[in-house]
């Protein structure tokens, strides 16, 4: 029997409201792709009916909608039935959320068909280890962010969403209420170059270790040769392998997200290319469930910064999910992915 593709949209409530410089949301909207193999066999295989799953988050910033991603994925059903491979997929779909869901589903399916875990299929030298993830604080008033920091002061690494004016007061309030936490900040393209000049020295004095995407992605050239007292991280400026060249000499860290690269296949290649080019790697996520985090957990092994707290921001996660002990995320079980 040929393989079959099932696509569905799902919604998960967020705990409270998640705010960044571009807006706020109270729900996470995800799309899940499931590929079921009608008759695969092999050593350790589960046999007929093995199913691989992948999840993505359509992102309006990149012109994506839930309906649009569902439509793109559903149009791939004939290719899946004909035996679509990950290599085929890289040629048929561009980087983005739709390709991510299907690529990760194919990784999961191969692991379940063969009985070989995804980390071995990816060529990792050893099984994934637990990871310490950042915990994200939404942008808010300084008082509210200080209170949130106090509640999360046990987390070793906090990521602060910023927006522009008043950001130094926000960071100072967080530092006061979480004096021992490591800090990184993310402006989500919300600053001007003048604000960067003004804020960066003060942020360095507050112990901030990473400043993510201060300028709009289209203004990357303004950072060429820029002497910043804090390492600069690219996020919205990083997509697939073809975006790497524009980062060199402008950023020191690249935030790789599966929804931007279009899946684990290109993300692994981009990670290797970044490291070869002298860029440190951060592995990040959208607000999503553990099914999105699971392949990213594999990618994040050895990364300089890990930001895979999406399920911690939800009111409920899918089951089974990743096991979090505070800010420590265990590797996924095969029942979840891989």
Automatic annotation (TrEMBL):
User: Quick one: which residues bind Mg(2+)?
Assistant: 186, 212, 235
What residues does the Mandelate racemase/muconate lactonizing enzyme C-terminal domain cover? 142-233
What PROSITE patterns is this protein classified in? MR_MLE_2
Q: Does the keyword Metal-binding apply?
A: yes
Recorded E.C. number(s)? 5.1.1.-
Identify the catalytic residues: 161, 257
- Please provide, alphabetically and separated by semicolons, the GO molecular function terms listed in this UniProt record: magnesium ion binding; racemase and epimerase activity, acting on amino acids and derivatives
User: Which InterPro entries does this UniProt record tie to the protein?
Assistant: DgoD-like, Dipeptide_epimerase, Enolase-like_C_sf, Enolase-like_N, Enolase_C-like, Mandel_Rmase/mucon_lact_enz_CS, Mandelate_racemase_C, Mandelate_racemase_N_dom
> Which keywords does the record carry?
Isomerase, Magnesium, Metal-binding
UniProt lists the family membership as follows: Belongs to the mandelate racemase/muconate lactonizing enzyme family.
Spell out the protein name for this chain: Dipeptide epimerase
Q: What is the organism field in this record?
A: Nitrospirillum amazonense
């Amino acid at each position: 029997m040929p393989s079959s593709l099932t696509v569905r949209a799902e919604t998960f409530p967020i705990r409270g409201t998640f705010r960044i410089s571009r807006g706020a949301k109270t729900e996470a909207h995800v799309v899940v792709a499931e590929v079921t193999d009608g008759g695969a066999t092999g050593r350790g295989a589960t046999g007929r009916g093995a199913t691989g799953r992948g999840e993505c988050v359509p992102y309006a910033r990149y012109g994506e909608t839930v309906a649009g991603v569902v439509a793109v994925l559903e149009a791939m059903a004939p290719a899946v039935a004909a035996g679509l491979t990950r290599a085929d997929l890289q040629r048929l779909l561009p980087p983005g959320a739709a390709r991510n869901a299907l690529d990760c589903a194919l990784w999961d399916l191969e692991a379940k068909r063969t009985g070989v875990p995804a980390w071995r299929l990816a060529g990792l030298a050893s099984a994934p280890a637990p990871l310490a993830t950042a915990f994200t604080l939404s942008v808010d008033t300084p008082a509210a962010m200080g209170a949130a920091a106090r509640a999360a002061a046990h987390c070793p690494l906090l990521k602060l969403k910023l927006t522009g004016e008043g950001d130094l007061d926000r960071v100072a309030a967080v530092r006061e209420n979480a004096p021992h936490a490591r800090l990184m900040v993310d402006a989500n393209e919300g600053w001007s170059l003048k604000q960067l000049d003004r804020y960066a020295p003060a942020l360095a004095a507050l112990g901030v270790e990473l400043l993510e995407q201060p300028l709009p992605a289209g203004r990357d050239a303004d950072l060429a040769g820029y002497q910043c007292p804090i390492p600069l991280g690219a996020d919205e400026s990083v997509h697939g392998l073809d975006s790497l060249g524009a980062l060199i000499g402008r950023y020191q860290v690249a935030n790789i997200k599966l929804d931007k690269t279009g899946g684990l296949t290109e993300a692994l290649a981009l990670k290797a290319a970044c490291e070869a080019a002298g860029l440190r790697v951060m592995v990040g996520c959208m607000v999503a469930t553990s099914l999105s985090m699971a392949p990213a957990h594999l990618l994040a092994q050895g990364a300089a910064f890990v930001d895979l707290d999406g399920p911690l921001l939800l009111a409920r996660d899918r089951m089974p999910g990743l096991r979090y002990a505070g800010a420590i995320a265990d590797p996924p079980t095969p029942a979840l992915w891989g």
